[in-house]
Amino acid sequence: MQALKNIRIGIFISLVNILIQGVSVLVQNIIASNLGIVKFGYFGILQSDYTIFCALADFGMATLILAFFGKRATQGRLFINVLQLRLSMTALAALTMVAFAFICRWDSPVFYGELILALGLLFQHAFFDWYFICGNFWKKLLLSKVLHTISYTTIMGIALWYLHFDSIPAIAGAMVVAALPAFGFGVGQAFTAKVLRIGLHTRKFFALMFKSACPYALSSLASFAYLPVGLYTVASFASESFLGSYNFAHKLIILASGLMVHFISSSLITLHQTDSKTLHLRDQAVFTLFIAAVSSPFWLFPEYTLRIIFFAAPWTNDVLATSCFCLRILALSLILQATRMGMISTMLKEKRTWTYGIMITAGGVVNIAVCLIGARVLSNSYIPLLTLTGDLLLSLQLAVYFIKHRRFGW
Predict the structure, then answer these.
(1) 11 belongs to a structural domain
(2) Number of domains into which the chain is organized
(3) 27: number of CA atoms within 13 Å, CB side?
(4) pLDDT band at residue 295, thresholds of 50, 70 and 90?
(5) 43-73 tens-digit pLDDT
(6) What contacts 162, CB < 8 A, 6 or more positions away?
(7) 166 and 247 share a domain?
(8) How far apart are CA 237 and CA 372, in angstroms?
(9) Burial of 11 (0-12, 13-18, 19+ CB in 10 A)
(10) Residue 96 lies in a domain
(11) E strand or H helix that includes residue 74
């Protein structure tokens, strides 16, 4: 059965990333302990902002480079152009983040953290991943990840555990420093002074790539109009204590959603091995039940789940109760993601990226509108439910599209 094959490959890809994810969860625990509930909620806003600007810096280019050029992107003039493109986009995103900080975060507790992480955009540990993947330099990629894991664990451990950093700017600075060893390794492997030579050919290459990357960028950036919008809505309309409580549930669901991406990759791998045009409901049902079973602790035992994952958090009865409530509702997003996984991977395989991009953008716009309007007239407890509007609408759009084109079969 194709669903079982997707699950096996998806689990394998997820396990490859478990080392870094495990370290990240451990560090988040100590950050929560050092900052306290309220400041940890604001730290979640900072991390969400940074992730959005990382996506802006990428602008769908990583996917496009891999799909269009493969190993050729690591050779000759094309390599120089690609590196120039990546550096230019990152610098532009960093400047935009600085402007965003002064315009939107001037009076926020995360203002100085925004400025520091804007600098961190220039030194992302994963900046050269495209080079290692396109060139099939798997040992170098693994070495880069291990190096980052070691440096991140060591530097954040010293900063949080030994020096007891308890301010958002200080912790943001430590995160930037922790990324430098892996970034330096990438510079040593993939940087050349020729990148400074920008000519007519470079500008034409940039124009072509921007035009081609638009649907990928649209899909990537529109995804932030879903779950992250709930966090921003809470920050704007709810109390600081509710924000801190919500942030724990939000982080856990975002982590799980990140792992769901690996199952889309596994589905793409299996889809490329078959010429079938039919999307089998049986496979979809099996995968959805698998995700429901794996995520069941989120709504059956939310208190134990939160206490185990965030074991160092300064829990109180009120904070834990609110986090459990939010986790139960937000976990439904994983089920909705599971129902559309096969449909998304099919559209990506068939290169219907513009269609998917328009759908996800429409769902995101509706999600933002519902959250903003609903938060004004309803109590804070409804915000997690309002956040699921985009997920529900996108799943319905995809279902209607595949039904209309008679692509479903048993």
Answers:
(1) no
(2) 2
(3) 24
(4) confident
(5) 999 999 999 999 899 887 877 776 677 678 7
(6) none
(7) no
(8) 9
(9) middle
(10) yes
(11) none
Domain end among 189, 213, 237: 213
CB 353 within 8 A of CB 215: yes
The tokens of 92 are what? 């532009």
- Does residue 180 sit in the same domain as residue 238? no
List Cα–Cα distances, 305 to 117, 300, 308, 323, in angstroms: 30, 9, 5, 11
Burial class of 216 by CB neighbour count within 10 A (0 to 12, 13 to 18, 19+): buried
Which of 213, 238, 257 is at the close of a domain? 213
DSSP reduced 3-state for 311:
coil
Per the document, the length of the chain is: 410
Give the DSSP per-residue string, 52-71.
HHHHHHHTTHHHHHHHHTGG
- pLDDT value for 377: 92
In a domain, 7, yes or no: no
Asked if 160 and 173 count as a contact pair (C-beta separation under 8 A), the reply is no
Question: What per-residue confidence (pLDDT) applies to 287?
Answer: 75
Q: Can you tell me whether residue 279 is helix, strand or coil?
A: strand
Residue 189 and residue 238 in one domain: no
Give dist(CA 341, CA 26) in Å, integer: 29
Looking at the domain assignment, is residue 1 inside a domain? no
pLDDT per residue as tens digits for the range 349-397: 677 878 888 999 999 999 999 999 999 999 999 999 999 999 999 999 9
Buried b (16+ CB within 10 A) or exposed e, 67-96: eebeeebbeeeebbbbbbbbbebbeebbee
Q: What angle do CA 15, 18, 20 make, to 5 degrees?
A: 145
State residue 6's pLDDT score.
47
**Start-to-end Cα distance in the chain:** 12
Residue 208 sits in which domain range? 19-213
Cα gap 43→167, rounded to integer Å: 10
Maximal CA-CA distance, the chain: 63
Around 301, how many Cα atoms within 13 Å sit in the side-chain half-sphere? 10
Residue 149 CB neighbours (<10 A): 18
